[in-house]
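Notes taken during the Thursday session

The instructor put the following on the board and asked us to keep it in front of us for the whole hour. The protein is ADP-heptose:LPS heptosyltransferase. We were told not to look anything up and to reason only from what is written here. First, the residues (327 in total):
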Amino acid sequence: MLLMTPLIAELERLYKGAEIDVVAEGPLAADVFATYFSVKHIYCLPRRGFKHPLSFLSLIFRIRRTRYDLIIDPCLRSGFSRTLARVFRARYKLGFDAQQSSTTLTHVVPESMAPHHMAQRPVALARWHASPAPDASPGFPAMDIRLSEDERTCGKTVVRELLAEQPQGKARCTVGIFADATGDKCYPAPWWSEFLATLRESSPRCAIVEIVPMHGRSMLGSRWPSYYSSSIRRMGAVMAAMDLVISADCGVMHLAVASQVPTMGLFCVTDAKVYGPYGTRSGSLLTHDLSAPEAARRVAAAFPDLFGAPAPQPGGVVPAPMRLVGR
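Then, after some discussion, the predicted structure tokens were revealed:
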């Protein structure tokens, strides 16, 4: 859902006054789009709907009562998404298709036209539908959960209180660390210890705050002030009050980007061209051939204003294997 926020922003730009319904699996879409003025209804299908057939089918039939002007299937090769597009009613149905022979869609865009980044693909769909001829469209909208001023103020208060517990002088910068991820994307605790030790050498007055994962346990040995919340908006508000968030490739990395805080995503398995942070001075660091200290030095070099390290090469690109996007 975080990766869908650029699509809603693009629809708002293209179709002033449009009313948008969002159909999602699971409950989090309600939080992601809570402050989007253009979003009229958010339909949250139960996860694993086949285990909850009555509630699942009831909601499907409720959505079917509306005849839409346009349905967008933003996913590549998702059978479930395409089935929903087939079931719901609309004058036009838009999506990608490899064979360009879909009987479900009225407007088919070749998969070859899909941008690499998952958040930019649905934006390309909307632009193609508005004007199939190439135009001078602006850059891609950033991911954004549109935190309110009240949420941001509360986030700043939380961070200020967390740092007040540290027995050090005023911090030069505040860095949030999310050290959890699934499977091989997760870096081990010793790796993070070396990484943070080197980062602190670059800026001894850099304050570290750990963002604790949903299981509620510290991934960094409880060495740093930490914040936990079951609410993605509260978590986003706290991260938005920081100067930088560093995270392995995971949903919290996307949440940080969508909270409009500079974010460095660490990638060792998945493709940064598809999932990497962009916008708000955010970027990706490919760590395949880097030690933890080397990775920390690369991060410090990418943010010289925070760490006092040498600036990266012109054009926002640091020597391989680092790739900065949307600096």
